[in-house]
Amino acid sequence: MSRNVDLHTHSSFSDGTCTPTQLVRLAQREGVEALVLTDHDTVAGLPEALAEARRVGQAFCGGVEINTREGDSVHILGYGFDPDCPRLKDLLADLRTRRVRRAAAILELLQGLGVSVSMEDVRCGSGETIGRPHIADALRRRKVVRSRKDAFRRFLAVGGPAYVPSAGPTVPEAIAGIRGAGGWAVLAHPGLLRKGHDLGPWVDAGLEGIEAYYPNHSRAQTGRFLEAAERYGLIVTGGSDFHGPRTEHDTIGGIRLPDEVYARFESRLDRCPAAARNGSHRP
Hints:
The chain is an alpha/beta fold. It has 2 domains: 2-91 and 170-281, Alpha-Beta Barrel (TIM Barrel); 93-156, DNA polymerase, domain 1. 41% of the residues lie in helices and 16% in strands. The protein has helices spanning 20-29, 46-56, 86-112, 119-123, 132-141, 148-156, 171-180, 200-204, 219-232, 259-270, 274-277, and strands spanning 2-9, 34-37, 60-67, 75-79, 184-187, 207-213, 235-238, 255-258, 280-281. Strands 1, 2, 3, 4, 5, 6, 7, 8 and 9 form a 9-stranded mixed β-sheet that branches. A hairpin with a 7-residue loop joins β3 (60-67) and β4 (75-79). The chain starts with a strand and ends with a strand. The mean pLDDT is 93.
């Protein structure tokens, strides 16, 4: 038996296009049995999502996704932490400040390419966290590109003419920030990393889980990540990486976690601080 869950989603507080309220309502409509909001480098959307989850009876837990500097796709998901932890909030605020500086550098490169986009253009589509998807949206609104995917292909991806490397933390720093708030850290979408990446140092730094179930993973990849979880004693998770309409990640739910896998996830949540459990809802 398995459960339809989504432990990796985004809202308009980062680079999603749905408000937290809309996200919760959509998850319930699609039959998602357990939902986690994991916005990039912010927890500001969690109170709204939690309030709506309680109102409509949707199982919900707060999370976060921290983008690291160790490659464009090396992201760390956090679960079971206290969202009001001052150290974590300070870390996330610093990361958002670094994002603004990165965005400014990208806009300068675009200007040199004859493409004029202002920071105001970028901010009008963002809630709390600014990222390359917001720049892509600004380019789309100005009809420079057709979609986020087109913007990344032409300008923003690694090797593109307007690419600026991430200024995020190292993986151990991201893990430490989550653990310092009482939570536990999971490697997001490992299939986007280079093949054969050694997880050992990150496990030694406190990594506790791996997102083996992910829409872009092939069956063979999922199998390898399940084997890695067994080898390192990691908790297995899964999520859609939903970002909402007008994005390339527009389908919520559909991730089937085996009952025993989800039970282990829930068991780990139950060992987290009371402050973290207060940020969840289980009807």
